[in-house]
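Sanity check

After download, print the first record. It should look like this:
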Amino acid sequence: MTELPEGVQRVAAALQEKNHPHGPVMLDGAARTAQQAADALGVAVGQIAKSIIFKRVADEAAVLVVTSGDRRVDEAKVAALVGPLARANAAFVKERTGFSIGGVSPVAHAMPGVTLIDRELFRFEQVWAAAGHPHGVFQLHPQDLVALTGAPVADVVEAPDEENVLDTLARENAIKTLAARAVSVGAMAENIPSPCVNVCRMDTGSGLCEGCFRTIEDIREWGRSDDTAKKVMWGQITERLRQTHPEAFV
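Expected structure tokens:
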């Protein structure tokens, strides 16, 4: 553990003290943003528990909001819970938490502050949080955040944008196209076609692409897979489709 960056060592020690089963892991690339972390881990961006820091005006306490990576913090909602807020610059974040922006962990802060946990994180079974360094993360269940921080769960984010009619139609057509391809692939032995269709967007709830029903890792593997492996992947896609959209096969 002594080879880990100092901030990650502090997080590892805090997790060990709380008997948390998952210690920090270091990614090959930086995970300063939720999208970078999600891409590196092969998970939905909503599964990244990102840390947003504000400064409370009344006492200059650090206010940490641990929010789902696919949501935007609603500052007015946070202020209604803890009091008026001001922006926190990099120096303030480093002083109060002991971590640099992009690696702020929900635990092991240098100074006590106020923490709120976004209830949207509870859409997922597992999430990943920063571990004190832009390359460091650790795995946990959303309810573990409550146990580790003692913080309340609250509604602290903006409502997600509603899907417009054209997006809905595109997604429905993509599902029908994919189901038709799934049926035809069963008779093929070689030159297995890609599942890609017009829609290419990751669903934050399932972690699957809305257009091809593959995970990020599936998509990465496709280009280096042979026809046999591609047929296996098509079988997985077909099973997911039959479970969630059986009407597409009628």
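If your output differs, re-run the checksum step. Summary of this record's structure: The first strand starts at residue 25 and ends at 26.
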